[in-house]
Amino acid sequence: MRQTNDLFTSEVGAKRNIEALDRVYTANARILPPGAPMIEGRAQIKTFWTQAIAGLDIKGVTLATVQAEVAGDSVVEIGRAELTTNAGQTVVAKYVVHWKQEDGAWKWHTDIWNMNQ
Predict the structure, then answer these.
(1) pLDDT, tens only, 58-77
(2) How far apart, in Å, are the Cα atoms of 54 and each of 18, 30, 87, 115?
(3) What is the pLDDT of residue 40?
(4) Is the dihedral of CA 51, 55, 57, 58 positive or negative?
(5) What is the full DSSP assignment across the chain?
(6) I want to staple 116 with a disulfide (CB 3.0 to 4.6 A). Which of 30, 51, 88, 92 is the partner?
């Protein structure tokens, strides 16, 4: 799990490498962004993150696991995220990720978050 979270922070957050999301999300993953409809599938998730990262002008992301529990053949993680913008602003969020294994790696299957504002 740590490798996947590190991949999101180093590749997607820091380098804006949206293609790395193939190694973060399962093929039929869903995201539930705040104030927006549910988005399903990697292609649509990539579109979302491309727009969100550009729109917020993100230059970095930090993820911290608060708690992770095994649930059958998956894991549920509760965590804290900090998004840093190029303007120097930090946005703090909390999240829940439902993890599943796919192709021998732990990936995000369901991802929901909201801001601490």
Answers:
(1) 999 999 999 999 999 999 99
(2) 11, 21, 13, 18
(3) 98
(4) negative
(5) -HHHHHHIIIIIITT--GGGGGGTEEEEEEEE-TTS--EESHHHHHHHHHHHHHHHTEEEEEEEEEEEEEETTEEEEEEEEEEEETTS-EEEEEEEEEEEEETTEEEEEEEEEEE--
(6) 92
Q: Taking Cα atoms as reference points, which of 18, 54, 52, 57 lies closest to residue 34?
A: 52
Q: What is the CA radius of gyration of the chain?
A: 13
pLDDT of residue 2 exceeding 90 = yes
Residue 59 structure tokens:
């230059």
Q: Average model confidence (pLDDT) for the chain? A: 96
Partners of 71 in beta bridges: 74
Q: For residue 117, is pLDDT > 90?
A: no
